[in-house]
């Protein structure tokens, strides 16, 4: 497990930046979380992988810019904010602050 903790936050190393080509996503299971790591023009965004509407995996969806379309029912989310862009989704998807350090994608929770 790639986890380090400080008094105010826990950092989790998810993957190498090179593992996620621009315009793609990668599913990562780390520290009990199932996450989708998105590369939008070299900027990395991380959300829960599970769609909030059904059994779809967002990392297996279609990424167009900063919008991901669920592979199960074609609902859409903004990967930057987690906001619903297109129904049938109603609830936003959880996002995590992501950053790069030493070529690794890391989230702070």
Walk me through this protein's architecture.
- A hairpin with a 6-residue loop joins β7 and β8.
- This protein is globular.
- It contains no helices and twelve strands.
- By secondary structure, it is mainly beta.
- It has one domain: Rieske Iron-sulfur Protein (3-layer Sandwich), CATH 2.102.10.10.
- A four-stranded antiparallel sheet has the order 1-2-12-11, with no helix packed on it. Strands 3-4-5-10 form a four-stranded antiparallel sheet, with no helix packed on it. The chain has a four-stranded antiparallel sheet with strand order 6-7-8-9, with no helix packed on it.
- The chain has strands at residues 3-5, 10-16, 25-30, 33-40, 43-48, 62-64, 67-69, 76-78, 84-86, 95-96, 98-101, 104-108.
Structural class estimated from helices and strands = mainly beta
Model regions low in confidence, pLDDT < 50 over at least 5 residues = none
Number of helices: 0
CATH class: Mainly Beta
Percent helix, as a range, is under 10%
Shape: globular
Distance between the termini: 15 Å
Mean pLDDT level: 92
CATH topology: Rieske Iron-sulfur Protein
- Give the strand line-up of the largest sheet: 1-2-12-11
Residue share in β-strands: over 45%
Structurally, the number of domains stands at: 1
Radius of gyration: 13 Å
Topology as a string of helices (H) and strands (E): EEEEEEEEEEEE
The major beta sheet can be summarized as: 4 strands, antiparallel
The CATH architecture name reads 3-layer Sandwich
CATH superfamily: Rieske [2Fe-2S] iron-sulphur domain
